[in-house]
Amino acid sequence: MMKDKDLKIILTEYAGKPGHLKKDTFIRSVTKDAGKEHVSTFKMIAVQAGYIRVYVWLISIAVACLPLFGADMFRFATLDAVADLMPFVAGVGIIEAMRARMYDMTELESVTLLSGKGVFYARMILIGVVQFALIPVSAVLMAFADTGSVIDHCVKLVLPYCITAIICLIVERTRFGRENVLVCLAVAGAVFAIRQSLVSFARYDPGSLTLTIAAAVLIIVQIFEFYKTVRTVGTGEVEWN
Amino acid sequence: MELKASGLTKQYGSKTAVDNMSFEIGKGVTGLLGANGAGKTTLMRMMCGILTPTSGEIEYDGYRVESEEYRNVLGYLPQDFGYYPEFTGMDFLKYFCALKGIDKKAANTRCEELLELVGLKDMGKVKVKKYSGGMKQRLGIAQAIINRPEVLILDEPTAGLDPKERVRFRSLIEELGKVSIVVLSTHIVSDIEHIADRIIMMKSGHIIWQGSWKEEQGSLEEFYLKEFE
Amino acid sequence: MDIELYYDKIYRYIFFKVNNRTLAEDLTQETFLRFLGAECEQPERFLYTIARNLCIDEYRRIKPLSTEDEEALDVSCEFENTLVNSLTVRKALESLNPDDRDMLIMRYVNSEPIQDIARFYDMSRFAVYRRIKEAGNRLKKLLEGGN
Asked: Of the residues A127, B21, B73, B179, which has the fewest C-beta atoms closer than 10 A?
């Protein structure tokens, strides 16, 4: 006897499909009357959340939670270890946010409701907010093992993070940066090296007040640079045919 | 349904890619014919609102091409496009559903429908990486029509298609032209000869001929070749 | 958007009732137009209700088409995977009780859960299950016999 599946196939094929043009026109007219709602920032972020690769979150969380794994055991100062890794966290974050460019998806994303700018904006906000939120978490974890204050720790982590992010954002606006997304990692490496020589070897310490002010200024600059970069995404100004 | 450009100009430094072009495009298939470097891609990017003209403007039924309303009814297939390496064909289409505001439940149905329409029904679960050039191009077309666009802009859509795919593709375009504005660029006359309701011929940023080609006018191919010698 | 999800389902449901593609398409669109004007909690059930009522109206308006007319209206149907031809399918479907046929279509072609079909026809799940099973078996027998 015939199987249920076969019967299903016969009946479905017998019915055929409604003509797609007639369907297109109808759905189009009906949905147009209903009006598409404006895509809110929240919706944009929610859509992008599913498309950010897990490794970005893993790296960010792993670095922030380093104090838990007792970096002390390796005769490191935990704060230095985390601060050293911060540029790479920032670099990876920006690379992920800029992923469309790396894989030639910007043009396609540009003609969607979200638009290329919207996509980048949503990805960067999402990654940035999570990474920023992890900084105090890390600082609190350190405070358990260490004697320093939480705010002090935060500031020392924010500095390398912001400096890297700002430079990456600026570089991404240049033609060279657009064509070489991985340049962010080079920037991270450079910030890492400078921090090493300034803090670890030269023991440079301008005092916590200066550092706190610097961190606050950098956060503002980063936000500013972020918006400036968003505006250049998807305009295709550099391409010629 | 009308896409209207007036005095459209785009300059890159001292180079003028598109020079003072004006046209009106209505429902049906419009072929944009020109050699490489004639400014077709630049023009199409401006039509999509992703490239800002140096001067002049372009509008669709009163909407500016930069507006969300226009993007909502627009479909575009760029000359080159990529994909995230972890994407399967289905993921790729679903991603664009999400970006084009089609909700998740409906997206599934719509994506399957489209894969079938472009003949990739059994390839949905395969990574795009493993697709042939023609298959990738067909996926690109599917992506462009996912939101049932009123304006469909296709930049060199037949590139990479084998002869059989070309035929199939042409009939799809012809069909879509019945209910939408379809603009497609090509440097191959035979791609549009029989399906374009209108032709715009471009040479170094200018329109050198536009209108609907009638058989009494002789061979389009010959005319085109003469112009570009 | 419900329309994207249910369009094909409603089309098929109607098609098996009216046996004419163009008419089925028109009635499908009419169903959605009526549906969009109303608020409801169970869109699926409501859609089927509208569709069924539209088909009933259609029957009243024009007398059911005779078999020959239907054939003239709709003969282009190819089966890639089976040897059964469309005429056999139609004859077999026509021999079923209309309600049985509709339930069968909802279950087999549209993959609706038995529970929903039972609610739609205001019958017990068991009764619906049994009727679909019987109708299915009968159809299979007819289709195989027609080979």
From this structure: B179
Residues C145 and C80 grouped into a single domain: yes
What distance in Å separates the CA atoms of residue A157 and residue A67, rounded to the nearest whole number?
Answer: 13
Per-residue pLDDT tens over the stretch C79-95: 554 556 777 888 888 88
Show the domain range for C35. Answer: 1-65
The verdict on C100 and C131 lying in the same domain is yes
Same domain, C54 and C105: no
- Does C128 lie in the same domain as C88? yes
The distance of C25 to chain A (nearest Cα, Å) reads: 6
- Least CB–CB distance from A108: residue in B45, B143, B176: B143
For residue A20, give the nearest of B39, B83, B117 by CB distance. B117
Last residue of a domain, one of C10, C33, C65: C65
| One-letter amino acid of C42 | Q
Q: What is the pTM of this model?
A: 0.86
Contacts of A36 in chain B (CB under 8 A): 72, 101
Residue pair B147/A27 in contact (Cβ under 8 Å)? The answer is no
d(CA C135, CA C141): 10
Name the residue among B127, B122, B133 with its Cα closest to residue B89: B127
Does residue C94 fall inside a structural domain? yes
| A122 contacts chain B (CB < 8 A) | no
Pair A181, A175: CB distance under 8 Å: no
Q: In A, which residues are within 8 Å of C4 by CB distance?
A: 27
Domain membership of residue C71 (yes or no) is no
Q: What is the pLDDT of residue A34?
A: 64
């084009």: which residue's tokens? B100
Residue C70 counted as domain residue: no
Q: What is the pLDDT of residues A88-143, one digit of tens each?
A: 999 999 999 988 888 889 899 999 988 888 899 999 999 999 999 999 998 888 87
**pLDDT attached to residue C83:** 56
Q: β-pairing, B55-60 with B2-12?
A: antiparallel
Do residues C29 and C83 share a domain? no
Q: How many domains does chain C have?
A: 2
Q: Is residue C61 situated within a structural domain?
A: yes
- C145 and C80 in a common domain: yes
Which residues of chain C are modeled with pLDDT < 70?
A: 1, 62-84, 146-147
Q: C3: distance to nearest CA of chain B, Å?
A: 8
Task: From chain B, pick out residues whose CB is under 8 angstroms from the CB of C8.
Answer: 109, 113
8 Å CB contact between C136 and C86: no
